[in-house]
Every structure is written in C-alpha cells, then in structure tokens.
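Database export, one record per block. Field names are fixed; values are copied verbatim from the stored entry.
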Amino acid sequence: MRIFNPLRRSFLLPLAFFLTSVISCSGLETFEKRDITIHGSGGDIRLRVEIARTPEQRQQGLMYRESLKDGEGMLFIFERDEMLSFWMKNTLIPLSIAYFAADGRILEIHDMEPGNLNPIVSARSARYALEVPQGWFSRAGIGVGDKVEI
C-alpha cells in the first residue's frame, strides 16, 4: 500500500523547473543537424552543419567547443536580411565565417580568432552566417560569389 505524501509531489515541480533551467543555461541545448551543399568553383562540397535558428541558439553558437572538424560547421539563420555581427566571446577554436544572401550567394568571408571581442560586421545585409574551422573555405575551394544550398 502506498501512502500519499503531498510534500513529495510539491517537491517534484520545483525540482523539474530547476533541472530544466540548469540544462538550458549549461550549453547543453541540442541543435538540429543537416547536410548542406556549397556549389564552388572546384565542384560541389557537402558540409554537415548544426542549425542555430532561435535567438538563444544563435547567442550560444560554438561557445566552449574544444574542436570542430573540417566538413562541419554551424549555420545561423535569421528571419530577414540585416547587418550581421559576430564576435568570439567564449569561443575556444579559430573559425572562419561566411555571410551570405537569401539566395545563397556568399557575400564575404572572414577569419576570426578565439576570444576576440571585436565584432566582425557584415559589409551589407545578409540572411545567413556560416561558421567553419578557420581556413576551411579556402581549403575546400570556396569563395565569395559561390552558392550555398540549404
């Protein structure tokens, strides 16, 4: 026979809320993964990306990651074209970032250094940003004007 204990039940809700808060603040949020194709001058290149779609995911980005393999990256999706700005706060690995238009055309590519708090601002409005290991775009033969297919 089980004895009903109202204190036990009232303890569960705050505990569940606390654990949810800790997990969401600890950087354990999961990202959707998807393969994208970049049509470069040297041919088509496939890239496995994590999707940062929400403001919270975009803010977290690749912070605290200790590694990122060639052929992997993070795609930041914005609702509309805008001037984009990224920095490397709490980012431990060197990255390259490409800003690209709603039609997928790469507008510009920049290298970024770990921990650098100086923003890398897009020269014009863009819809997406793609972060990859530093130098990957050039190693893969990808440049400005090439097209990303999501």
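Remark 1: The longest strand covers residues 72-82.
Remark 2: The chain has a mean pLDDT of 87.
End of record.
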